[in-house]
Write a structure and sequence with these properties.
By secondary structure, this protein is an alpha/beta fold. The protein has 13 helices and eight strands. Helix 7 links the parallel strand 2 and strand 3. It is globular, with a radius of gyration of 20 Å. About 26% of the residues have low confidence.
Length: 416
């Protein structure tokens, strides 16, 4: 009966909205709309725009305005219990003064390592030791640096933020254009002998329909888009951060929708590896203040992380300490149960002083830059520290959401 079917559709919609509200209460990224859409540089040339050559274009978040309040990114009870042993005391100041020491500089490119032959059963595990990460020449912070050479904040922002390698985001569902956009990054990185970090972000029902909603119209379209994305990967080393929040923030979906999404993510991992066997693909593990390691591992297992990934990523756009994230990542990988060689990458862009006080999520004061991006972590099971979210791009309080805000960037660079 039409009336009954309509009523059932309304009831299903109400249930999904309730799940979304609950999911918002524990969202992975305290600034998901800003951090995950703009992150660093977003290759969103415009949906429907098709061209044979392209480069990522710096844009603001597609959904302007402040985000809804999110809970404080506080540490899990397990981490708190072992905090005295696992993490150093908090101090403020410049990155060189932080309790977490800086990694070796990556300013000079190194020659790419020769690829090793990958077993047919699964991809090669971790990025090559000491590989230099790629800094794309277009970003909001670089635009500011070029236009404000006489600003007294210029030297600190340039040296500590703009000069660091960072991720490139592909946040538009743009079949026909994304291949060339990806290729423009990977070919430039290969020419420099460096490793780019790419973030495909177009999964349907992205952000549970919240501030960063968008993506492909359905999973079939997404599968095709990932195929186009993969076609631009080239043959060099590349790190792929596959769909932030897609696994950790999936409780808003029905059981059937979640199962279908996870199957699509598993296909995406296989597609990326098939296109470029040297690609290192990492799946979403949320962060240490969200799901338990066991729950997150179960979701990762359901999404095929054991066979379709090279490991997991954590802390995207968040503030948790590196030591806490590394410990959490190891627990997740142990609970996942293999195969051996899976690793983790951690977003360290703004975690130098650890998480803010409870309830503070929007450009919180007292934060600092974390460890510079590197694949030389010296930490077991941790393949890289990356800047996936670009420090200085506002969450919507110190500046327009997604915009580069020099005062905020300067505070992060100083560590206050």
């Amino acid at each position: 009966m039409p009336g009954l079917r309509a009523q059932r559709r309304i009831e299903r919609a109400e249930r999904r909205r309730a799940k979304r509200r609950n999911a918002m209460a524990v969202a992975a990224s305290a600034v998901v709309a800003v951090g995950t859409v703009t992150g660093v540089m977003s290759a969103v040339a415009g949906e429907g725009e098709h061209r044979s050559t392209a480069r990522p274009e710096t844009t603001r978040t597609p959904v302007p305005g402040p985000l809804p309040a999110r809970p404080s990114p506080s540490a899990t009870p397990t981490v708190k219990a072992s905090a005295s042993a696992s993490r150093p005391a908090t101090t403020s100041g410049s990155p060189s003064q932080l309790s977490e020491p800086s990694s070796p500089s990556l300013a000079k490119p190194t020659k790419p390592t020769k690829p090793t032959k990958k077993p047919a059963s699964r991809p090669q595990a971790s990025p090559p030791p000491g590989a230099a990460l790629y800094r794309h020449p277009e970003s909001q912070v670089l635009d500011w640096v070029r236009a404000n050479r006489d600003d007294p904040r210029h030297p600190l922002i340039k040296s500590r933020i703009a000069d660091q390698p960072a991720a490139v985001w592909f946040a538009a569902y743009n079949p026909g254009a994304v291949t060339a956009q990806v290729r423009s990054v990977t070919s430039a990185a290969a020419g420099a002998g460096q490793v780019p970090v790419l973030v495909p972000y177009a999964i349907p029902d992205r952000d549970c329909g919240g501030a960063s909603q968008g993506g492909a119209p359905d999973l079939g379209a997404y599968d095709d888009w990932i195929g186009d994305f993969a076609a631009g990967l080239g043959s060099g080393e590349v790190i792929v951060i596959l769909e932030p929040d897609s696994i950790a923030l999936s409780d808003c979906l029905s059981a059937g929708e979640r199962e279908a999404r996870f199957a699509s993510l598993a296909r995406a991992g296989r597609t990326l590896h098939a296109a470029n066997p040297r690609a290192k693909v990492y799946f979403d593990a949320g962060h240490s203040g969200w799901h338990s390691a066991e729950k997150q591992a179960a979701a990762l297992r359901a999404a095929g992380a054991g066979s379709s990934s090279d490991g997991i990523f954590t802390n995207v756009s968040n503030f948790h300490r590196t030591a806490d994230e590394a410990a959490y990542a190891r627990r997740v990988l142990a609970a996942l149960g293999g195969p051996a060689g899976l690793g983790a990458v951690i977003d360290t862009s703004r975690n130098g002083n650890g998480p803010p006080a409870a309830g503070q999520w929007c450009d919180p004061a007292g934060r600092a830059l974390g460890r510079p991006p590197t694949t030389r972590t010296g930490a077991a099971g941790v393949d890289a520290y990356l800047w996936i979210k670009l420090p200085g791009e506002s969450d919507g309080c110190k500046g327009a959401a997604g915009s580069f805000t020099p005062d905020y960037a300067y505070q992060l660079a100083k560590g206050d």
